Amino acid sequence: MKTYLTVIGGGLAGSEAAWQAAEKGVTVILYEMRSKIPTPVHKTDQCAELVCSNSLGSNLPHSAPFLLKEELRKFNSIVISAADRHCVPAGGALAVDRDLFSQEITERILQHPNITLKRDEVVEIPDEGPVIIATGPLTSPKLSEDIKRIVGQKYLYFYDALSPIVDANTIDYDKAFFASRYNKGGDDYLNCPMDAEQYRQFVHELNHAQKVPFASFEKPIYFEGCLPIEELAARGQKTLAFGPLKPVGLPHPETGRLAHAVVQLRRENKQSTAFNLVGFQTKLTYPEQKRVFTLIPGLEKAEFFRLGAIHRNTYINAPGILTKNLDLQSRPGIYFAGQIIGVEGYVESATMGLLASLSAIRKISGEEFVPPPLETAMGALHNYVTTKPSKNYQPMNINFGLFPVKEMGIRNKKVRNQKIFENALTSLTRWRDSFKEEVDSAV
Length: 443
Ligand SMILES: Cc1cc2nc3c(=O)[nH]c(=O)nc-3n(C[C@H](O)[C@H](O)[C@H](O)COP(=O)(O)OP(=O)(O)OC[C@H]3O[C@@H](n4cnc5c(N)ncnc54)[C@H](O)[C@@H]3O)c2cc1C
What we know:
- With 443 residues, this protein is an alpha/beta fold.
- It has 2 domains: 4-162 and 311-442, 3-Layer(bba) Sandwich (FAD/NAD(P)-binding domain), CATH 3.50.50.60; 165-307, Beta Barrel (Elongation Factor Tu (Ef-tu), domain 3).
- Helices cover 32% and strands 16% of the residues.
- The chain is built from 13 helices and 16 strands.
- It has helices at residues 12-23, 64-73, 78-85, 98-111, 141-151, 196-208, 229-234, 286-293, 318-321, 346-364, 377-387, 413-433, 438-442; strands at 4-8, 27-31, 55-58, 87-88, 93-96, 115-118, 131-133, 156-162, 165-167, 177-178, 189-194, 261-267, 274-277, 304-306, 309-316, 334-336.
- The strands form 4 sheets. It has a 6-stranded antiparallel sheet with strand order 10-11-12-13-9-14. Strands 6-2-1-7-16 form a 5-stranded parallel sheet. A 3-stranded antiparallel sheet has the order 3-5-4.
- α1 runs parallel beside α10, α2 (64-73) packs parallel to α10 and α2 (64-73) runs parallel beside α12.
- The N and C termini lie close together (9 Å).
- Bound molecules: flavin-adenine dinucleotide.
- The site of flavin-adenine dinucleotide has 35 residues, from α1 and α10.
């Protein structure tokens, strides 16, 4: 039995994966190509470099991102412990001094007796596992080709276009109505009708809202079938009303009247706790998305589980090809972790590194990997990447919309979130304690 683990990619996921395995006594070889081969966005050769914002998301009590961090703390996560040590004031967020943060992670990896950091590009997936592939949204082209060979062309994507996701509890159902266009499909969609003046104002605000500029390397992904909503709005006053906001086939169920335009929302999960805004992929800044999208009738008080985005992103259609162990169905022992499997965000990526590592450690010690309980933030993410129907699979950040519906019966949001939070930490601790030091005896 091979007792060492290969980790490819020294980003957020790969650093966490290597660290967790090394701490359990496994010998780790970690490959990171930077310093020899750059990516289009990384600026240093440090491990776990934060490529854009220096924020690791909300630190507000009882929020889903905070819960995920708390769960990682229970595993002595290298990413979160470095973030805690090098945090900078940022209101309700955990933001860090990015240089000190990645320097500390790099030093701890270099100094760990069980980790060897090799500064090389891996161009082919090794034949023998266990291997964790954590090469991120900007996986080098040569390795991308090899991944494509192994997972199949249709399972590898090169961009993502995310529409905002709304908390169902915050929608005004007196204004929004359920219906499918021309009655095809029952009440599959939730429709927010606009009159002519509301539409005019909405288009005006879209046209004047602040946008995040595209990075030069992202421009090729900007294609006709997936234009940002504001780009369509800029093409003419009527473009949206004849495009994603067309009202035809959607008469109001009570008055029978056609609206001037209709924004459609699609169920995000079976429990209908979350809805996405159809066709609303966008490059508006986050505050502008909140401001402009809450002009939509019915969404005035909407709270968003996730905001929209468009960026270059290599990721695999994980639910179609990964097992619950996070390795390939077709090649057991070849694990994937991080953004490449369809999670969005630094902390989410580190989490998947941790889970893939725990799973690989189990394999090394001849034990079965039991995934984290569904009611935990780790379990909710794991469930998303392994069981979300693979059609239209898109990267996802942690949010309470991914959690089981049980606690959603509680109407008071604060009380509900507190309950989810407490249940999650109790379950997570129990699950963590099931990981005994069995590996030490196996290696
Ligand atoms: C332009 C852009 C902006 C972003 N902004 C944010 C943001 O503001 N906030 C946020 O939370 N997330 C942001 N993200 C997402 C962010 O990339 C992920 O959240 C996170 O960094 C992903 O972690 P990862 O470990 O999966 O990948 P990464 O952190 O990218 O790590 C992958 C590593 O693999 C290495 N690598 C690639 N190919 C090879 C190879 N063949 N051999 C060896 N090494 C290789 C890379 O050099 C890199 O170090 C952004 C992404 C992009 C592309």
